[in-house]
Amino acid sequence: MTSKELTQQIFKKKSFLCVGLDTDLDRIPTYLLSEEDPVFSFNKAIIDATHKYCVAYKPNIAFYEAIGVDGWKALKKTVDYLHSEYPEIYTIADAKRGDIGNTSRMYAKAFFEDLGFDSVTVAPYMGKDSVEPFLEFTNKHTILLALTSNEGAYDFQTLQTDNEELYKQVIKTSKGWNNSENLMYVVGATKAEYLADIRKIIPENFLLVPGVGAQGGSLEEVCKYGITKNVGLLVNSSRKIIYASDSSNFAEIAGAKAEALQIQMAQELEKL
Amino acid sequence: MTSKELTQQIFKKKSFLCVGLDTDLDRIPTYLLSEEDPVFSFNKAIIDATHKYCVAYKPNIAFYEAIGVDGWKALKKTVDYLHSEYPEIYTIADAKRGDIGNTSRMYAKAFFEDLGFDSVTVAPYMGKDSVEPFLEFTNKHTILLALTSNEGAYDFQTLQTDNEELYKQVIKTSKGWNNSENLMYVVGATKAEYLADIRKIIPENFLLVPGVGAQGGSLEEVCKYGITKNVGLLVNSSRKIIYASDSSNFAEIAGAKAEALQIQMAQELEKL
Hints:
Two copies of one chain form a homodimer. Helices cover 44% and strands 15% of the residues of chain A. Chain A is α/β, with parallel strands linked by helices and 272 residues long. The first copy, chain A, has one domain: TIM Barrel. The longest helix of chain A has 21 residues, at 250-270. The model of chain A has no long low-confidence stretch (mean pLDDT 97). At the A-B interface, α3, α4, β3, α5 and α6 of A face α3, α4, β3, α5 and α6 of B. Chains A, B: It comes from Gramella jeungdoensis. Chains A, B: Residues 16-254 form the Orotidine 5'-phosphate decarboxylase domain. Chains A, B: This is Orotidine-5'-phosphate decarboxylase.
């Protein structure tokens, strides 16, 4: 999916919500555990209940890898289900990969070809040749970690380098890489005040913004500093939606949580 | 496995070689492709032929993920085979993971519990709370990217921060994290001249050194600047060993390549 098509979906649905599928066997309703594939059953119910209110889903790959082969199967089934039932939905593999060139190429193949995701999150520490293999894919996005939502972001990302903080250097440098028009960036909602500076460097690119919800970031602040005329935002919420309830109507309640966020987003979009 | 036990194995085998299992269906001998699990068949043959000359194996997780569920199965079979047939061997998941705390905990579970690796490589960009969940595991090592072997390492890792280059800041900061005695560090053989400075910061920790072989690093240089009285080095070679030949005696030739490196390593150990 192109950025333009994503923007169209956002205006159509009046939502720039991404629902994070951090599906954990220890947290899903226990009655699902007797199903053949509890992870997929949970995801399917969540997707069916929330898809009207969001434009993207973001499976967090760690949660699938943690249960081995079964997890990988459930991940594949989830992406296939999204593609077949809701082809208008944008898909993000939250994988935070990055390695030397020939290895990054393999990761790109895994997420773009084998699993068919529209985008994948990538860590910048290993530099240009670790990211460019992802950027080679047409109509796919590479979502580079810039300033993350966690406390540890202050360990290295905000260090002052030659001219400015490391995360700014990462964003500026990445603009010079091949096919950099396929880049999006991760900027945590917990660091909304940094968004104004970031928008000076990348006025147009989409930002994937985690940290609204369980991590405490504010949607209003994110929009104040980060929204563009083409929106340019995907705001993610995971735990606050998918684990809003562990009773038999968990999906319905997740849907209501997603709708509540969508309504706030529609208000923000009206300001444009 | 503890660092002490690893050192004992190194002196016993007169080798600090790690063989990288970057197993790629496009590069293994074509006659293996008709086997039920060609990736595992290749790995098993390589392991049986090289285990006498090395102390560790390092599957590169990207290569397994690139073929989906089948890859994950082959990876699990490979680790299980190592544990059952060669329990003295140290295992490294070259995964370069790292995410917010609750997600890193899931990756740690995937590699340490589900797959049973002795260690996993982790990227430092997201800081303390992205690495500490790996460090909590007893008798497991977390191998932090410091200065990698690729060209892109010069994009950010060697940037001058407040006081010194970023990779040095990463190493120094990580020493203050909980259970930091479980840390090893990745330092590329292509950057051997940096090792002297690194040893001033971490005189004892093991270093995982990729880049000897296909990437052009020199074993002699690595030892000159990086070896300690307890060795403190695991030098990895992947493609130059496992793809030395694509004929039916590929494993035998891989064994000879591994032995040649082991002989050089024995000479370096004699200098201690």
